[in-house]
Amino acid sequence: MLKYRVITALILIPIVIAALFLLPPAGFGLVIIAISGLAGWEWAQFIGWHSQGKRIATGVGFAALLVLMQASLPDFDHLLDTAMIKNSLWAGLFWWVAAILLVVSYPNSANMWKNSVLLKLLFGILTIVPFYCGMMTLRMLGYSTNSYTGAWWLLYVMLLVWAADSGAYAFGRLMGKHKMAPKVSPGKTLEGLVGGLITAGVVSWLFTRFAPITEVPNHLLLISGIVVIVSVFGDLAESMFKRVSGIKDSSQLIPGHGGVLDRIDSLTAAIPVFAGLVFLVSSGFQM
């Protein structure tokens, strides 16, 4: 299993970096739409649609929705001037506050939604659509001046999440005693969360010191800390949906890693929350 995870990571990481830095906005958007469509295909199981026909229809539906959104954009340079994008980011912020409450109060919270197809479909929309909007908004940051600025900040959020995940695993194994959400994911501990925050803080410091960037978000450390915590709950939220659905992995698309959602669950929370906090709640970037 470890061998497959390493091989898959060695293949996927260069592809991710190439997509971030080399694709034009429209092409990058189509890649995110394809990933989101696969995530929608997997989300169908959370809704209770296990037949392949319903799962494919769900994935196509998510992809088609995002294609329509991208096609309706007047341009890529002023995404935050578009009500659709701005409202989606606000929806993402409110959804992840609600999702955290659902995780913290599980299993009692599941009684409110586990038998509702509409609510579980809505949860999927609120997870995947703001993720797409956050990815595009960050990618287009300063694009007309420097086409790589947004790519660096997207890479920053990804590195933040990956570092937090690795730090949480290491600290949790060494010192973990107090469970975060034992009824959702018994392996996650508060000590691991603290370790994840520490490693993410180191990555944040290294990034701002060595990355080729000229502008930094106001309150970057505070925003990054919030994003790390929310990313952990992104992972926990997917674990909660899988537990209610009675499945172990969202799919077997990625050898050694499970499905697309298993790989991007933390990012579906981190990306829209980072974008929302920077652009909507804080005051953007400064020199």
Main sheet characteristics: 2 strands, antiparallel
**Outline, from the CA principal axes?**
globular
Rg calc:
18 Å
Task: Please provide the ordered H/E string of secondary-structure elements.
Answer: HHHHHHHEEHEHHE
Task: Give the amount of beta strand, in percent.
Answer: under 5%
Q: Domain count, please report it.
A: 1
Strand order of the largest sheet: 1-2
Distance between the termini: 45 Å
Give the strand tally.
Answer: 4
Helix content: over 70%
**Count of DSSP-assigned helices:** 10
Regions with little confidence, pLDDT below 50 for 5+ residues? none
Which structural class fits the helix and strand makeup?
Answer: mainly alpha
What's the pLDDT, averaged over the residues?
Answer: 91
Description:
The chain is mainly alpha-helical and 287 residues long. It has one domain. 73% of the residues lie in helices and 4% in strands. The chain is built from 10 helices and 4 strands. It has helices spanning 2-22, 25-47, 52-72, 83-104, 110-113, 117-139, 149-175, 190-210, 220-245, 260-281, and strands spanning 179-181, 185-189, 216-217, 285-286. The strands form 2 sheets. The chain has a two-stranded antiparallel sheet. α2 runs antiparallel to α3 (52-72) and α9 runs antiparallel to α10. The radius of gyration is 18 Å and the shape is globular.
